[in-house]
Amino acid sequence: MGSIDRYIFRTTLASFALVLISLTGVIWITQALRGIDLMTSQGQTILTFLGVTSLVIPALILVIAPIALMIAITHTLNKLANDSEIIVMNAAGLSPIRLFVPFLYATMVVAVVVAFIAAYLAPDGMRRIKQWDAEITADVLANILQPGRFSQLDQNLTIRIRERQPGGVLAGIFVDDRRDPKERISIIADRGTVLNNERGSFLVLQDGHLERFETGKQDPALVSFDRYAFDMSKFSNRSSDVIYGIRERYLWELISPPEDDTMYKQLPGQFRADLHDRLMAPIYPFAFAALTFAFLGTPRTTRQSRNFSIGNAILAVFGLRMIGFACSVMAVKSPLAVLVQYLMLLLALGVSVWIILTGAVIEPPARLVEAINRSNARLLRLFGRPVAS
Across-strand partners of 188? Predict the structure, then answer.
């Protein structure tokens, strides 16, 4: 690349990174707030909360990256236009297609990143979320026991906790165990924690006392303890087998699923839709970049407004993506929707490249400009301001 190409390439990628981080951060925060109960109701630490919620970031980038690239290209072209650099380049003999080359290089970088995320990183993050969620939800204390409520885990077993404290500590624990017809056990403990190991799941109680009422005896046996392990293995429902959904499958697993895959036999349409979504993910950056440059890449004087072109570029990109989402939904039931989605992307790329090659300038119709000017003039007269002749 020459010096001009490197300048445009760096500017575009720097803008892309800034926009991508900003948009992803905002959307990630809104998504993370939905899982705030992971800390409040399930007693998990802030590190667990951040770890689980951050695993969804690759899936967000998959959708946001093409849009961030479109915004970055728009910013770069506006910067070049405001500084009259596009006009100087054009006067020096640099054709629009030649000016598009550094943007194409930047688009290739984005497309490679998106392809890697679609094929491996996004499903890997979703897998880790599923595994982590399985470990958390396997703990009955994190799902059934609610602070301030008496929870009946078995026919004759009732447990109550007063509150959950940071670090997974349970405070104010009461256990009423009447499963053995020969005795009844009541336990009150100041606090407790959950211990999971190869022997099972245990509720480790601390600083409490145990009352045992045996059949045929009038007085209960009272025992004070510093530490007591109550076996909860029966209710933990721990399982080492995690069934991955379609979003958790890697790209090659969607391309060639096992013949005995039960989920594939039940949902072949969703496999097809998700497969083609991932295959088309790296194509969207090229389509968005070409559309944006087709509307904004031609040289204009500083007196010519670029607002119309920016608006059209946004509408074209937005429309293309919305049609893509609609086709993805319809592809579950109709393979024809997949073909429509590919043709739509190829048509957008073809028309954009033709506009760039011919150097066509997309301007608003003269009648529309006149109507807007007349409307502005009426508004100025309405507010008593002079109208420029």
Answer: 174, 209
Residue with tokens 């109208």: 387
Identify the three-state secondary structure at position 68: helix
pLDDT of residue 302: 56
End-to-end CA, the chain: 48
Q: In a 10 Å sphere around its CB, with 0-12 CB exposed, 13-18 middle and 19+ buried, how is residue 167 labelled?
A: exposed
The pLDDT tens digits for 104-157 are: 999 999 999 999 999 999 898 888 877 776 666 555 555 566 777 777 777 788
Neighbours of 384 (CB within 10 A): 6
Q: Residue 110 and residue 289: Cα distance in Å, rounded?
A: 11
Q: Residue 241: what residue type?
A: D
In the three-class reduction of DSSP (H, G, I as helix; E, B as strand; rest coil), residue 14 is classed as helix
Q: Would you say 49 and 38 are in contact if contact means Cβ atoms under 8 Å apart?
A: yes
221-231 and 200-214 beta bridge pairing: antiparallel
The maximal CA–CA distance of the chain, rounded, in angstroms, is 109
- Please enumerate in sequence order all residues whose Cβ is within 8 A of that of 2, keeping only pairs 6 or more positions apart, or say none: none
CA distance linking residue 363 with residue 262, whole number of Å: 55
Element of type H or E holding 110: helix 96-116
Among 68-72, 89-93, 300-304, the minimum mean pLDDT is found in 300-304
CA atoms within 13 A on the CB side of 128: 15
Reading the block at residue 231, the tokens are: 């076996």
Range from 124-128, 219-223, 305-309, 385-389 carrying the lowest mean pLDDT: 385-389
Other CB atoms within 10 A of residue 12 CB: 24
Kindly give the pairing relationship between strand 157-165 and strand 150-154.
antiparallel
Measured from the Cβ of residue 371, the count of other Cβ atoms closer than 10 Å reads 12
> Taking the model in full, what pTM does it have?
0.70
